[in-house]
Amino acid sequence: RESNRSTLGSFFKMEIMHLSCEDKGWMVKRNTSLSAQSSCEAWGGWEAPNCAIDHLPPQYDTGVYWCESSEGQTSPSLYITVTDGPVLLQSPVLPVPEGQNIALTCQHRTSSKLPARFYHDGRLLSTQPSGHMTITHVSASHGGLYSCEIRGDRSESNKLKDCLGTALHVEPERLQFFKMEIMHLSCEDKGWMVKRNTSLSAQRSCEACGGWEAPNCAINHLSPQYDTGVYWCESSAGQTSPSLYITVTDRPVLLQSPVLPVPEGQNIALTCQHRTSSNLPARFYHDGRLLLTQPSGHMTITHVSASHGGLYSCEIRGDRSESSHIHVTGQQFSSV
């Protein structure tokens, strides 16, 4: 049967699941116990931008799902569970901002609105007569593993993430670096590993390319040909953080721009930086079109909207920087 549960991470065996990527040209991919880094064409019905999986079997379709661009950039990943048990927990798939409410539903395969027990990190949280509960004004302490129980049958556990989920931190906080600089990378959550894809190496962890002292990764003497690429954090279960495309340039100019997606309505600060001088006049470009010339090399875009997303670069004394992608609302991934 077809599921009508939007953006949920648990499904019963034999349901139908629909997956899609918001942005044109992005592909649904997954890691399961039986397949690694495979695209929808290999295991589902693909008709861009939609992917449908019929008759879900737990052993084949439980795993980590995400969207990926042709350049290797990735969306936040979702861990989707397919269960052959009679009970599942409906909980938010995407990270929940602090202060908001969380709705949980314990669902039985054959009956609805049955009394249910809810658990947080293995401890009994509450018993509800109709199988629904709401956690109000959530904080970081509400993150963790949730499950539920009906008539003695326990659901699989779902992980509830806080607002940002696991993130890759970059120091200095920018997406472009000069050749021979030092870059420090780290993952927020314990046990997650920094990984990357570059033109010379695929799916390599920090030990192979930098100095790893958990949870930090340092790469010295950055090289354009070796270190330009896609970086992310990955858990032992294969879940991934949003990825960052980091550029190492041998040009004399780089652009400093936001590392993380920028919420609509906020401001964006851009700086055009010369390798040897500071506060020089600079031109700023958006998707190849001249945006503005600023006398000190700094500019601010106020109250951004989705139209401000795209590729940005800058120019000083005729030298153009590489381009970096600014995400205003971020790449989203949905399951139904």
Automatic annotation (TrEMBL):
Domain of life: Eukaryota
Entry annotated with the keyword Signal: yes
Key words, A-Z: Disulfide bond, Signal
Pfam families cross-referenced by the UniProt entry: Ig_2
Entry's Gene Ontology molecular function annotations: transmembrane signaling receptor activity
Organism in which the protein naturally occurs: Neogobius melanostomus (round goby)
GO cellular component: external side of plasma membrane
Domain (Ig-like): residue spans on this chain: 76-161, 242-329
Protein name: Ig-like domain-containing protein
GO BP annotations, alphabetical order: cell surface receptor signaling pathway; immune response
InterPro entries attached to this UniProt entry: Ig-like_dom (IPR007110), Ig-like_dom_sf (IPR036179), Ig-like_fold (IPR013783), Ig_Fc_receptor (IPR050488), Ig_sub (IPR003599), Ig_sub2 (IPR003598)
